[in-house]
Amino acid sequence: MSLNVSPASAPSATSTVSNKPSAARPIVLTGDRPTGPLHLGHYIGSLVSRVQLQDEASQFLLLADTQAMTDNVGRHQKVTENVVEVALDYLAVGIDPEKSTIFIQSQVTELYELSMHLLNLVSVSRLERNPTIKEEIRLRGFERDIPAGFLTYPVSQAADISAFKATLVPVGNDQLPMIEQTNELVRRFNNVVGKDVLVECKEVLSETGRLPGIDGKAKMSKSLGNSIALGASPAEIKQAVQRMYTDPNHLRVDDPGQVEGNVVFTFLDAFDPDRDAVAELKAHYTRGGLGDSVVKRRLEGILQEMLEPIRTRREQWQQERGEVLAILRRGTERARAAAAQTVSEVRGALGLNYF
Ligand code: TRP
Question: Which residue segments constitute the domains of the chain, with CATH numbers given?
Answer without folding.
Answer: 7-211+321-350 (3.40.50.620)
